[in-house]
Structures are given as structure tokens and as C-alpha cells.
TrEMBL record:
One of its GO terms (biological process) is protein N-linked glycosylation. The chain holds residues 249 to 605 of 605 of the full protein. Its EC number is 2.6.1.16. The keyword Repeat applies. It catalyses: D-fructose 6-phosphate + L-glutamine = D-glucosamine 6-phosphate + L-glutamate. It comes from Infirmifilum uzonense. This is Glutamine--fructose-6-phosphate aminotransferase [isomerizing].
Length: 357
């Protein structure tokens, strides 16, 4: 039931504070077992499709940063190119909200045949991916009806932030005190997500009028901002049918910038303070070509005055910004779809769960 919301997608965006809280409350001993397995494993691979892949890429970047551990991310339909690298002492993390995506399941089976340990992160207890893994862990997003993944993505990010922090603990990079301090920070997410939603709604509705009339939009980020930029682009193209590309900001001048002309919207996602100096350059390059620049920033960002439009989410904590900065991007895509008269819950050509390879 939509409980008064015009669409499931909007209802699910608004449920995020609660289900992020449920996910945090559900951090169990299973997360600890998964993290200690990861900390002592050979190579770590992480695989998923679509939005779940963006969460996986985030985990890989965060674990390099927090634990100094290499995690190899790959898109699950490409598993044949990676399976030969797998050995008995390695671990594969399979991420899928439904737990039923065939590509991710095939990747899981092929790594399992090679003797790898399988950890899964799904939203559905008893789903095939969770059943076939050695160590299933779960987000607690509740059923997601909208085809566009929203609350399952932010709960994946929350769960993977905690998993990465635990890996950092089990590899000896941080101690118990620091681990509890991180947990305390993560626990602020539900309240901050509520404030982000109320701050973003009017902004997204207004900006969607511009975005929905354009043919193409770029979403650029660096470091931890990249997976969030990729996700923003996927949401827009999936439900509003506006061509959108997510790109590493630095890479944009190696091709994509050729398309930029006056009025072309470019969204910049900034998470890491120490990468902002370089993002300034990327913003200026786009402005020099007449781009319409939009910033998704945390508090204390130094980029605020550099862009034409901005939203500032209510935190400067780099561990929390990925979840918070996702929310305005979800709302922007939602209102762009509505402005164009499309039903965001039922995008054309797409199924909620893809069961054909
Ligand atoms: O159920 P899964 O997380 O395995 O699904 C993976 C993708 O099919 C899914 O994330 C898809 O990209 C979404 N519709 C994106 O909003």
C-alpha cells in the first residue's frame, strides 16, 4: 500500500530513515563473522548488478581506505572474465537486494565451484543467493516495490560501511574504541536522513523542471563520490528516460566533455574533502563550456559557491555523506519522471528482478 504517497518510489525514499535504523539495529554477529573471514582471506572479490554494483564499488573503495585491503569489484554478468583468478583461500561477496538476480547467482556458483568462500548481502531471508552462500548477512529495508532501487541502496551502503569498519578492526587497523566510535557515527544516519529528505524535496522538485527538459546529464564524482554519481545517473535514466552518464570527474576530459555545450547539466558529487581541490578544476572546465553546474555537497564543502545550483546535506562526516548525498539524487530522478508524466514505479523495459542471463 502506498499509504498516501502518489508512488511507491516516493514512499520508499521516505522510509529510508526508518529502514536504515532497522539495518543498524540488525548488525549481528554474522557481520562480525563475515568481516573476520574477509580480514584473513586471500583475494576478496565483490560482485553485483545495477544499483547493487554501485554499493559494491563503494565497499571496495572504502575498504581500501579504512582497512588497506584490496577488494576487486566486478559486474556480475562479466564473471567469466574473473572466475579464473579465484582460488580456494579467496572470498566472494555477492550483493543483491532481491537475492535472486541470475547474473549474480551465476557468479556466485562459479566462484563456489572453485572453492571460494561466499558471503552475501541481501534484503530477503531465504532468497536463493543467501541460501547458496556460506555466510549470509542482511539489510533490513523491508519489501521494495518500486523498480528503482532506493531504500535498498542506502541500506546496502549502511551495511557495507559497517562491514568495512569491522574488516578494519579485524585487520588490526583500528581498535575497539575506534570501532565503537564509528558505530556511534553510523547511528546518526536515521536522523540525518530525515533532515536530508526535508531539505531536498523542494530543491529536487524545482530542479527537476530543468533536468526533465534536457537530453543528457553528466554526474561526476571522485573517490567515494564516484559510486554515488553512478547511482544518480542510473536513477535518472531508468525512470525519467533522460540520458545520463556517471563518470570519474577527472576522466570526463578524456572524452565526455566533447558533448558539453551551453546549458548542459553537470552534477558534481563531493564526498572527500581532500579531493575537492581537484573537483574545483573539473567544475571550472565544465563552466568554461557553459555547463549548468549542480553540486551535491556536505557541510563545510568549499565548492558551494562554485556551482550554479547546490544542495548541502546536514553533515560533514565522510562515512555518512554517501548515504545522505544519495537522497537528493533519488528525489531529483523521481520528480523528473513525474514532471515528464511517467510512472516512476513501472519504468518501461525493466523488471524488478532480472532472472534471464
Ligand atoms: O536485486 P538486485 O540488487 O540483484 O538487482 C540488481 C539490479 O537489477 C538492480 O539494482 C537494478 O539496477 C535497479 N532497478 C536499479 O534501480
Amino acid at each position: 500500500r502506498k499509504e498516501g504517497y502518489p508512488h511507491f518510489m516516493l514512499k520508499e525514499i521516505h522510509e529510508q530513515p526508518r529502514v536504515i535504523g532497522d539495518t543498524i539495529f540488525g548488525f549481528s554477529k554474522d557481520y562480525e563473522a563475515a568481516a573476520s573471514t574477509l580480514a584473513s582471506s586471500g583475494n576478496i572479490f565483490i560482485t553485483a548488478a545495477g544499483t547493487s554494483f554501485h554499493a559494491s564499488l563503494y565497499f571496495s573503495l572504502l575498504t581500501a581506505r579504512l582497512a588497506g585491503k584490496k577488494v576487486i569489484p566486478f559486474i556480475s554478468s562479466e564473471y567469466e572474465s574473473y572466475a579464473n583468478l579465484a582460488n580456494k583461500e579467496d572470498v566472494l561477496v555477492a550483493v543483491s537486494q532481491s537475492g535472486e538476480t541470475i547474473d549474480t547467482l551465476m557468479a556466485l556458483r562459479s566462484f563456489k565451484e572453485r572453492g571460494c568462500k561466499i558471503i552475501s548481502l541481501t534484503n530477503v531471508i531465504g532468497s536463493v543467493i543467501s541460501r547458496e552462500s556460506h555466510l549470509p548477512v542482511y539489510m533490513k529495508a523491508g519489501p521494495e516495490i518500486g523498480v528503482a532501487a532506493t531504500k535498498t541502496f542506502t541500506t546496502q551502503l549502511t551495511a557495507l560501511t559497517w562491514l568495512s569498519s569491522l574488516v578494519s578492526f579485524y585487520t588490526g587497523k583500528i581498535g575497539r574504541d575506534e570501532l565503537s566510535e564509528i558505530k556511534g557515527r553510523i547511528m546518526k544516519l536515521p536522523d540525518l536522513a530525515t533532515r536530508t529528505i526535508s531539505r531536498s524535496e523542494g530543491w529536487a522538485r524545482r530542479l527537476s523542471q530543468v533536468i526533465s527538459s534536457r537530453h543528457s546529464v553528466y554526474y561526476l564524482g571522485r573517490g567515494l563520490g564516484l559510486p554515488i554519481a553512478l547511482e544518480g545517473a542510473l536513477k535518472l535514466k531508468e525512470i525519467a528516460y533522460v540520458h545520463a552518464e556517471g563518470y570519474p570527474a577527472g576522466e570526463s576530459k578524456h572524452g565526455p566533455i566533447a558533448l558539453v555545450e551551453p546549458g548542459f547539466p553537470v552534477v558534481f558529487v563531493s564526498i572527500e574533502k581532500n579531493l575537492e581541490r581537484k573537483l574545483v578544476g573539473n567544475i571550472e572546465e565544465m563552466k568554461a563550456r557553459g555547463a549548468f553546474t549542480i553540486g551535491i555537497f556536505g557541510e563545510q564543502s568549499e565548492l558551494v559557491s562554485r556551482v550554479d545550483e547546490r544542495i548541502i546535506v546536514p553533515s560533514s562526516d565522510e562515512l555518512l555523506l554517501p548515504v545522505l548525498e544519495t537522497i537528493p539524487l533519488q528525489l531529483l530522478a523521481y520528480y523528473a519522471a513525474v514532471a515528464k508524466g511517467y510512472d516512476p514505479d513501472k519504468p518501461r523495459n525493466l523488471a524488478k528482478t532480472v532472472t534471464v542471463e
